[in-house]
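User: I'm preparing a small set of examples for a lab meeting where we compare how different chains pack in three dimensions. I only have the primary sequence for this one, and I'd like the structure in token form so I can line it up with the others. Please keep the answer compact; I'll paste it straight into my notes.
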Amino acid sequence: MTRSSSTSATKIIEIFHIWSASELPQNPTNGGTTMTSPLFSKSLKARVFGTLIFIALAMGWLRAQAQTTSGAVVSGTVTIDHGRVAAFRVKAKDTMRRIAYTVYTQKGRYNIYNLPAGHYEISVLEEGIEPLTQAVDLPAGKSVTANLNLRATAAAEERVGISGARAQENYGGVRGSAKATARIVDFDTLYPPGRGRDLIQLYCLGCHGPGGFHQRGFGNEATWRARVEKMFTRKSGILTDEPMIGTGVMSEEDKNTIIKYLADNFGPNSESRDLAPDPIVRDEDALSRTIFVQYELPSPDEARTQGLGRAQRTTHDTFPSLITPGVVWVAGLGTNSILRVNTRDLDPAERNKEYFVKDPRNIMLGVHGIIEIPGRVHWTELMGDHLGELDTNTGEIRRYAQPTKGGGHTPRADSKGNVWFTEVSGNGKIGRWDAQTKQITEYDPVKGANYYGVVVDKKDRVFVAGMTKKTLVMWDPKTQAWSNLNPPSNVRRLALDSKDNVWACAYGNNSIIRVDANTLQMEEYRLPLKNGNPYAIYVDTEDNVWVENAVYNSFVMFDPRTKKFILSFPGTQRAHAKHGNGQ
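Assistant: Understood. Below is the structure token output for the 583-residue chain.
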């Protein structure tokens, strides 16, 4: 379940790359790295809501740079009047091409190589510093120095708890009537054990996460009853017009237990409490070999001319094309559109192509999940309740109505081109669109599971996660039947590695889960930073597992060979990563 609150006129797509040792010619001045790799070796793509950024690992950008850029360099030192500069993020924005490049400092220095000639704005993306931007002009093939002398702010010392790690901003939460200061506590103190907490973990934290309730504001039993009842009603203002908890899924006794638990622990006179995050220790050597590349998307003005007056440039899933290298397909959540972004084209006027989805109701459709298969792009709609199809050769758009209005979420295709998709509302189901007949068949193996992520392996087995009721179901094409694998925690997004092992992220349990492709046995690995909420998961071409941890605004890499989390990459702004094709 997601929220989107961006009101800016533009959106940015971002590429994130890590070089291998063989790709890293050393800069003799400070041990920095040069951007000389002919081809990216990983292909993560991502989505962000509530801000201006997508985050992705994608192939091919660097090769395009080598072919089209002048090889200009901007570098310099970063200092601060209080504290230490350790892997600070330095961003160079090309104002003409609307592309930005962000690197991390090493020993107080930064280097950004192979830039096109042009006008740049250099800034530092860190909290607790006064804003500072330095404008520079980069001549073709030349090097320019831009030193940045920062001043710390008092605000840097005032942040406490996960709220200080921007947990609620990252996930769209609000403080409401929560007190300004909070006592930092552990999870059991914030959410005391009991039947009420068990129910919240089963039905609620899989979506709201560990920072879900204490930041919603305090209230008496009547206030909490109104908040909880909202989850059982239509037009609840969440994602879809359908209730988020399905009909008959929860008993009145369990509902009342949840309401009383929240009123008892987050009542009008309750002490304000917050979870304590761990500090992120930045590995300068590893981070100095990393670059984020951001591509600004067009304004939503054209969507408004199409009659969608409240259009915003909010986006959701992205899908890197395996058919046309460098192209990324983007779901236009707030514009009723599909965007095709050619990241190899430096010209912003030519880089983006947008396809608008028409609906006679003239409503916000909530274009959400997206995939590409040869000749076609398919998408789901949170509010439109259709599965969409774009003919990439002709530009023709077709839409197929879902039998159940369930809030279309994630699509994936099997080997025959059939599209499996999930519906996230409480009454939602799992859909299968037949590529030959164009008909949709629905399944509901676990009623009220809030179906979320889906992957299809090489055997055409379909795995579907439900973010409530500890649901991870598998469709066996041989037996034509579903079975629930009963994961130890609620899971949301899924990914496949090269051996068809399934990886899942447990958003409310700060862990990831591996399902063995042959035995279907599970192993759970807890993230190293406490009280996290891993939202999305992706497996790269080397079978490294990448996890996005929203509370900490970072990527974490897990090595399945050593079974260790080895790196944490703070993002350039708060963001949620989203996996793409799963291969």
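A couple of notes for your slides: Confidence is low (pLDDT under 50) at residues 1-10, 18-68, 156-179, 574-583. Residues 252-265 form the longest helix (14 residues).

User: Perfect, thanks.
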